[in-house]
Design a protein that fits this description.
With about 200 residues, the protein is mainly α. The chain has nine helices and no strands.
Amino acid sequence: LNAEKRHNPIYEYLMIFIGSVLYAISTVVFIFPNDLLLGGTSGISIILTDFLPFSPGVILMIINFALIVIAFAVLGKEMAIKTLIGSVLTTAFVGLFEKLLPIEQAPISNPYISAFIGAFIIAIASGIMFYVDSSSGGTDIIAMLIRSLYVTIFLLNINFWRLTFVGGSAVISAKKTLFFLISCFVVLLTLGFRSK
């Protein structure tokens, strides 16, 4: 795409909308029903459901709100606004799809396949939003803050997911830890191809 189209506000916000919808659907349909950990705030929200009386979507909303406040303080106004919109849309769509698609049982019973599909779609959604200088919120905001210091999102996400892995391993089974690792590998691999 040429630079003029990429920086067209209508195009940018359409990409943020599409990325947010894809991210939220994948999270609600493939990640949450299997109690899978996916790095960053989605994984942290699943871990915290064992300790707090809230759904993963509500916990995700609280974490994202705190990180958005930081983004406005540090990021430039334009990027912060796009990140705010991406985060709000993603969080709102997660909450909406939790209500519209009340999934009692995972649609794909094999957690390996569910982890792979969910992570792949989330990686595509994240790539769409990164392309227009936005994100779904969460630890992507931290990655965007540090990226301004010339550290790649790819490497930053490895560290965020490592923290989620350590925290999650303490409260989930070894089998679900393996699903987490599969999800992280798929997301990192997909984002790595996107960044080349």
